[in-house]
Amino acid sequence: MDKPVIAVTMGDPCGIGPEIIAAALADPAITALCRPLVLGDRGAMERGIAVAGVKLAIASAPDLLPPLDASPHTLYLRELSRLKLDEIPYGAPTKAGGDACYRYICEAAKLCLDGTVQAMATAPINKESMNSAGHDYPGHTELLAELTGTPEVVMMLAGERLRVTLVTIHEPLARVPELVTFDRVLSTIRITHDALSRWFCCAPRLAVLALNPHCGEGGMFGDEESRIIAPAVAAAREAGIDAAGPVSADTLFHFAAKGGYDAVVCMYHDQGLIPLKLLHFDDGVNVTLGLPIIRTSVDHGTAYNLAGTGKASAESMKAALVMAARMAQQGCQ
User: Fold this and answer.
1) Is the domain of 21 the same as that of 137?
2) Can you give the residue range of the structural domain that contains 113?
3) Which positions bind substrate (predicted)?
Protein backbone atom coordinates (compact mmCIF):
# COMPACT_ATOMS: atom_id res chain seq x y z
CA MET A 1 0.00 0.00 0.00
CA ASP A 2 1.10 3.55 -0.73
CA LYS A 3 1.36 5.86 2.24
CA PRO A 4 -2.16 5.79 3.73
CA VAL A 5 -4.27 8.92 3.95
CA ILE A 6 -5.28 9.64 7.54
CA ALA A 7 -8.19 11.98 8.26
CA VAL A 8 -7.15 14.05 11.27
CA THR A 9 -10.03 15.72 13.10
CA MET A 10 -9.03 19.04 14.66
CA GLY A 11 -10.99 18.52 17.87
CA ASP A 12 -12.07 21.35 20.15
CA PRO A 13 -10.61 24.60 18.75
CA CYS A 14 -10.64 26.07 22.28
CA GLY A 15 -8.23 23.39 23.48
CA ILE A 16 -4.82 22.09 22.46
CA GLY A 17 -5.96 20.14 19.39
CA PRO A 18 -4.84 22.57 16.66
CA GLU A 19 -1.40 23.16 18.19
CA ILE A 20 -0.58 19.48 18.81
CA ILE A 21 -1.70 18.64 15.28
CA ALA A 22 0.57 21.37 13.93
CA ALA A 23 3.51 20.13 16.01
CA ALA A 24 2.89 16.52 14.95
CA LEU A 25 2.62 17.31 11.23
CA ALA A 26 5.78 19.40 11.34
CA ASP A 27 7.68 16.21 12.23
CA PRO A 28 9.00 14.66 8.99
CA ALA A 29 8.85 11.21 10.59
CA ILE A 30 5.04 11.47 10.56
CA THR A 31 4.68 12.60 6.96
CA ALA A 32 7.13 9.87 5.94
CA LEU A 33 4.60 7.28 7.18
CA CYS A 34 1.27 8.74 6.08
CA ARG A 35 -0.56 11.54 4.29
CA PRO A 36 -2.52 13.49 6.91
CA LEU A 37 -5.65 15.35 5.82
CA VAL A 38 -6.79 17.73 8.55
CA LEU A 39 -10.54 18.27 8.87
CA GLY A 40 -10.98 21.56 10.64
CA ASP A 41 -10.88 25.33 10.52
CA ARG A 42 -8.30 27.55 8.84
CA GLY A 43 -8.29 30.32 11.44
CA ALA A 44 -7.94 27.88 14.31
CA MET A 45 -5.18 25.96 12.54
CA GLU A 46 -3.27 29.16 11.71
CA ARG A 47 -3.46 30.06 15.37
CA GLY A 48 -2.32 26.56 16.33
CA ILE A 49 0.65 26.70 13.96
CA ALA A 50 1.73 30.01 15.47
CA VAL A 51 1.42 28.68 19.02
CA ALA A 52 3.35 25.52 18.17
CA GLY A 53 6.12 27.66 16.66
CA VAL A 54 6.49 25.48 13.57
CA LYS A 55 6.81 26.30 9.90
CA LEU A 56 3.85 24.88 8.01
CA ALA A 57 2.03 26.24 5.00
CA ILE A 58 -1.69 25.47 4.77
CA ALA A 59 -2.87 24.02 1.47
CA SER A 60 -6.61 23.96 0.89
CA ALA A 61 -7.89 20.48 0.02
CA PRO A 62 -11.67 20.81 -0.37
CA ASP A 63 -11.94 17.78 -2.67
CA LEU A 64 -8.46 16.42 -3.33
CA LEU A 65 -6.26 14.26 -1.10
CA PRO A 66 -2.67 15.01 -0.14
CA PRO A 67 -0.46 13.84 -3.02
CA LEU A 68 2.03 11.00 -2.67
CA ASP A 69 4.85 13.52 -2.99
CA ALA A 70 3.28 15.90 -0.47
CA SER A 71 5.64 18.46 0.97
CA PRO A 72 6.62 17.71 4.58
CA HIS A 73 6.19 21.41 5.32
CA THR A 74 2.57 21.60 4.12
CA LEU A 75 -0.59 20.99 6.13
CA TYR A 76 -3.42 19.83 3.88
CA LEU A 77 -6.71 21.17 5.24
CA ARG A 78 -10.31 20.39 4.37
CA GLU A 79 -12.05 23.42 5.81
CA LEU A 80 -15.37 22.40 7.39
CA SER A 81 -15.99 25.49 9.51
CA ARG A 82 -15.31 29.21 9.39
CA LEU A 83 -15.11 30.15 13.04
CA LYS A 84 -14.43 33.65 14.28
CA LEU A 85 -11.67 33.67 16.85
CA ASP A 86 -13.92 35.40 19.38
CA GLU A 87 -16.24 32.35 19.12
CA ILE A 88 -13.45 30.02 20.19
CA PRO A 89 -11.46 31.63 23.02
CA TYR A 90 -8.80 29.43 24.55
CA GLY A 91 -9.65 27.66 27.76
CA ALA A 92 -13.43 27.22 27.76
CA PRO A 93 -15.99 25.18 25.81
CA THR A 94 -18.24 27.01 23.34
CA LYS A 95 -21.33 26.03 21.37
CA ALA A 96 -19.67 27.01 18.08
CA GLY A 97 -16.65 24.86 18.85
CA GLY A 98 -18.82 21.92 19.84
CA ASP A 99 -20.81 22.02 16.61
CA ALA A 100 -17.60 22.21 14.59
CA CYS A 101 -16.13 19.18 16.42
CA TYR A 102 -19.22 17.16 15.54
CA ARG A 103 -18.93 18.00 11.84
CA TYR A 104 -15.25 17.07 11.70
CA ILE A 105 -15.95 13.64 13.20
CA CYS A 106 -18.91 12.95 10.90
CA GLU A 107 -16.87 13.84 7.81
CA ALA A 108 -13.94 11.68 8.90
CA ALA A 109 -16.22 8.68 9.48
CA LYS A 110 -17.81 9.18 6.06
CA LEU A 111 -14.41 9.35 4.34
CA CYS A 112 -13.33 6.16 6.11
CA LEU A 113 -16.52 4.28 5.30
CA ASP A 114 -16.43 5.13 1.60
CA GLY A 115 -12.74 4.25 1.33
CA THR A 116 -11.53 7.76 0.50
CA VAL A 117 -9.13 7.62 3.45
CA GLN A 118 -7.68 4.60 5.20
CA ALA A 119 -8.02 5.70 8.84
CA MET A 120 -8.92 8.55 11.15
CA ALA A 121 -7.00 10.03 14.08
CA THR A 122 -8.80 12.37 16.42
CA ALA A 123 -7.72 15.31 18.55
CA PRO A 124 -9.58 15.78 21.86
CA ILE A 125 -13.11 17.13 22.12
CA ASN A 126 -15.20 18.50 24.97
CA LYS A 127 -18.46 16.64 25.55
CA GLU A 128 -20.09 19.68 27.18
CA SER A 129 -19.52 21.89 24.14
CA MET A 130 -20.75 19.22 21.71
CA ASN A 131 -23.86 18.61 23.79
CA SER A 132 -24.55 22.35 24.06
CA ALA A 133 -24.60 22.45 20.26
CA GLY A 134 -27.36 19.83 20.22
CA HIS A 135 -25.26 16.72 19.63
CA ASP A 136 -26.08 14.53 22.61
CA TYR A 137 -23.27 11.98 22.77
CA PRO A 138 -20.99 11.11 25.69
CA GLY A 139 -17.99 11.25 23.36
CA HIS A 140 -16.29 10.08 20.19
CA THR A 141 -16.92 6.39 20.79
CA GLU A 142 -20.70 6.54 20.98
CA LEU A 143 -20.95 8.90 17.99
CA LEU A 144 -18.70 6.72 15.84
CA ALA A 145 -20.60 3.59 16.84
CA GLU A 146 -23.81 5.23 15.61
CA LEU A 147 -22.26 6.60 12.41
CA THR A 148 -20.86 3.18 11.48
CA GLY A 149 -23.82 1.11 12.66
CA THR A 150 -21.68 -0.76 15.18
CA PRO A 151 -23.60 -2.33 18.10
CA GLU A 152 -20.60 -3.12 20.31
CA VAL A 153 -17.27 -1.35 20.65
CA VAL A 154 -14.34 -1.64 23.05
CA MET A 155 -11.88 1.01 24.20
CA MET A 156 -8.23 0.03 23.96
CA LEU A 157 -5.38 2.14 25.32
CA ALA A 158 -2.06 1.16 23.84
CA GLY A 159 1.65 1.82 23.77
CA GLU A 160 4.69 -0.12 22.66
CA ARG A 161 4.92 -2.06 25.94
CA LEU A 162 1.30 -2.51 27.00
CA ARG A 163 -2.24 -2.68 25.60
CA VAL A 164 -5.35 -2.69 27.79
CA THR A 165 -9.03 -3.03 26.92
CA LEU A 166 -11.92 -2.23 29.23
CA VAL A 167 -15.09 -4.15 30.11
CA THR A 168 -16.53 -1.02 31.79
CA ILE A 169 -15.31 2.50 31.13
CA HIS A 170 -16.62 5.71 32.72
CA GLU A 171 -18.74 4.27 35.49
CA PRO A 172 -18.89 4.89 39.25
CA LEU A 173 -16.80 2.30 41.02
CA ALA A 174 -19.81 1.25 43.08
CA ARG A 175 -21.65 0.22 39.90
CA VAL A 176 -18.84 -1.82 38.36
CA PRO A 177 -19.72 -5.21 39.95
CA GLU A 178 -23.26 -5.15 38.54
CA LEU A 179 -21.95 -4.16 35.09
CA VAL A 180 -19.37 -6.97 34.92
CA THR A 181 -21.59 -9.61 33.34
CA PHE A 182 -20.80 -12.83 31.50
CA ASP A 183 -21.94 -11.38 28.18
CA ARG A 184 -20.00 -8.16 28.62
CA VAL A 185 -16.76 -9.91 29.60
CA LEU A 186 -17.04 -12.42 26.75
CA SER A 187 -17.86 -9.67 24.23
CA THR A 188 -14.83 -7.61 25.31
CA ILE A 189 -12.56 -10.66 24.98
CA ARG A 190 -13.97 -11.48 21.55
CA ILE A 191 -13.76 -7.93 20.17
CA THR A 192 -10.21 -7.54 21.51
CA HIS A 193 -9.15 -10.82 19.89
CA ASP A 194 -10.81 -10.08 16.55
CA ALA A 195 -9.43 -6.53 16.33
CA LEU A 196 -5.86 -7.51 17.19
CA SER A 197 -6.06 -10.36 14.69
CA ARG A 198 -7.36 -8.04 11.97
CA TRP A 199 -5.48 -4.80 12.48
CA PHE A 200 -2.27 -5.97 14.14
CA CYS A 201 -1.85 -9.29 12.30
CA CYS A 202 -1.09 -11.31 15.38
CA ALA A 203 -2.50 -14.40 17.08
CA PRO A 204 -3.29 -12.50 20.27
CA ARG A 205 -2.49 -13.82 23.72
CA LEU A 206 -4.95 -12.23 26.13
CA ALA A 207 -4.91 -11.98 29.91
CA VAL A 208 -8.27 -11.42 31.57
CA LEU A 209 -8.12 -9.74 34.96
CA ALA A 210 -10.04 -10.56 38.10
CA LEU A 211 -12.34 -7.96 39.60
CA ASN A 212 -11.44 -8.60 43.24
CA PRO A 213 -8.08 -8.79 45.05
CA HIS A 214 -6.34 -12.16 44.74
CA CYS A 215 -9.07 -13.37 42.34
CA GLY A 216 -11.56 -13.26 45.19
CA GLU A 217 -9.46 -15.53 47.44
CA GLY A 218 -11.81 -18.48 47.04
CA GLY A 219 -14.90 -16.34 47.59
CA MET A 220 -13.66 -14.48 50.68
CA PHE A 221 -13.40 -11.18 48.75
CA GLY A 222 -16.13 -11.76 46.17
CA ASP A 223 -17.37 -14.42 43.78
CA GLU A 224 -17.43 -12.60 40.42
CA GLU A 225 -14.34 -14.54 39.34
CA SER A 226 -15.90 -17.99 39.71
CA ARG A 227 -19.44 -16.94 38.82
CA ILE A 228 -18.83 -14.62 35.82
CA ILE A 229 -15.25 -14.10 34.65
CA ALA A 230 -13.96 -17.69 34.63
CA PRO A 231 -16.98 -18.97 32.67
CA ALA A 232 -16.54 -16.15 30.13
CA VAL A 233 -12.85 -17.02 29.71
CA ALA A 234 -13.78 -20.71 29.29
CA ALA A 235 -16.33 -19.80 26.61
CA ALA A 236 -13.71 -17.70 24.81
CA ARG A 237 -11.23 -20.56 24.88
CA GLU A 238 -13.87 -22.93 23.50
CA ALA A 239 -14.22 -20.48 20.59
CA GLY A 240 -10.48 -20.74 19.87
CA ILE A 241 -9.33 -17.57 21.63
CA ASP A 242 -6.06 -17.70 23.55
CA ALA A 243 -7.30 -16.16 26.80
CA ALA A 244 -5.95 -16.75 30.30
CA GLY A 245 -7.75 -15.82 33.49
CA PRO A 246 -9.08 -14.60 35.69
CA VAL A 247 -5.65 -13.35 36.73
CA SER A 248 -4.87 -11.18 39.74
CA ALA A 249 -4.29 -7.59 38.66
CA ASP A 250 -1.57 -6.89 41.21
CA THR A 251 0.92 -9.25 39.51
CA LEU A 252 -0.23 -9.55 35.92
CA PHE A 253 1.00 -6.20 34.57
CA HIS A 254 4.60 -7.04 35.43
CA PHE A 255 4.47 -9.95 32.98
CA ALA A 256 2.34 -8.16 30.38
CA ALA A 257 4.79 -5.24 30.19
CA LYS A 258 7.58 -7.75 29.54
CA GLY A 259 5.74 -9.10 26.50
CA GLY A 260 3.92 -12.04 28.04
CA TYR A 261 0.57 -10.95 26.59
CA ASP A 262 -0.60 -8.92 23.60
CA ALA A 263 -3.40 -7.26 25.56
CA VAL A 264 -4.93 -7.24 29.02
CA VAL A 265 -8.72 -7.27 29.39
CA CYS A 266 -9.52 -5.12 32.45
CA MET A 267 -12.75 -4.94 34.40
CA TYR A 268 -12.83 -1.19 35.03
CA HIS A 269 -11.26 2.12 34.04
CA ASP A 270 -8.53 2.68 36.62
CA GLN A 271 -7.55 -1.00 36.75
CA GLY A 272 -6.25 -0.65 33.20
CA LEU A 273 -5.39 3.01 32.81
CA ILE A 274 -3.18 3.45 35.85
CA PRO A 275 -0.54 0.95 34.64
CA LEU A 276 -0.97 2.06 31.02
CA LYS A 277 -0.34 5.72 31.85
CA LEU A 278 2.51 4.83 34.17
CA LEU A 279 4.31 3.36 31.16
CA HIS A 280 2.84 5.51 28.37
CA PHE A 281 1.81 8.84 29.87
CA ASP A 282 3.07 10.86 26.90
CA ASP A 283 2.70 8.43 24.02
CA GLY A 284 -0.42 6.38 24.82
CA VAL A 285 -3.03 5.93 22.09
CA ASN A 286 -6.77 5.40 22.39
CA VAL A 287 -8.08 2.93 19.79
CA THR A 288 -11.76 2.12 19.28
CA LEU A 289 -12.03 -1.61 18.59
CA GLY A 290 -15.02 -3.23 16.91
CA LEU A 291 -15.60 -0.50 14.32
CA PRO A 292 -15.39 -1.37 10.60
CA ILE A 293 -12.89 1.50 10.27
CA ILE A 294 -9.60 2.44 11.93
CA ARG A 295 -9.92 5.11 14.59
CA THR A 296 -7.09 6.18 16.84
CA SER A 297 -6.93 9.13 19.20
CA VAL A 298 -4.81 10.90 21.73
CA ASP A 299 -5.26 9.48 25.24
CA HIS A 300 -5.81 12.89 26.88
CA GLY A 301 -8.34 15.69 26.94
CA THR A 302 -8.54 19.25 25.67
CA ALA A 303 -6.13 20.54 28.37
CA TYR A 304 -7.74 23.98 28.48
CA ASN A 305 -5.17 25.10 31.03
CA LEU A 306 -2.40 24.59 28.45
CA ALA A 307 -4.23 25.80 25.35
CA GLY A 308 -2.40 28.62 23.64
CA THR A 309 0.71 28.35 25.82
CA GLY A 310 2.78 26.17 23.48
CA LYS A 311 3.53 23.81 26.39
CA ALA A 312 1.28 20.92 25.35
CA SER A 313 3.03 17.72 24.30
CA ALA A 314 2.30 16.41 20.81
CA GLU A 315 3.69 12.92 21.54
CA SER A 316 0.29 11.25 21.93
CA MET A 317 -0.92 12.86 18.69
CA LYS A 318 2.17 11.60 16.89
CA ALA A 319 1.69 8.13 18.36
CA ALA A 320 -1.96 8.10 17.26
CA LEU A 321 -0.94 8.93 13.68
CA VAL A 322 1.82 6.34 13.67
CA MET A 323 -0.51 3.64 14.99
CA ALA A 324 -3.24 4.53 12.48
CA ALA A 325 -0.72 4.33 9.63
CA ARG A 326 0.66 0.99 10.80
CA MET A 327 -2.82 -0.47 11.25
CA ALA A 328 -3.80 0.65 7.74
CA GLN A 329 -0.63 -0.79 6.21
CA GLN A 330 -0.46 -4.03 8.17
CA GLY A 331 -4.14 -4.84 8.63
CA CYS A 332 -5.24 -8.34 7.66
CA GLN A 333 -8.55 -7.73 5.94
Assistant:
1) yes
2) 5-150+291-330
3) 140-141, 277, 286, 295
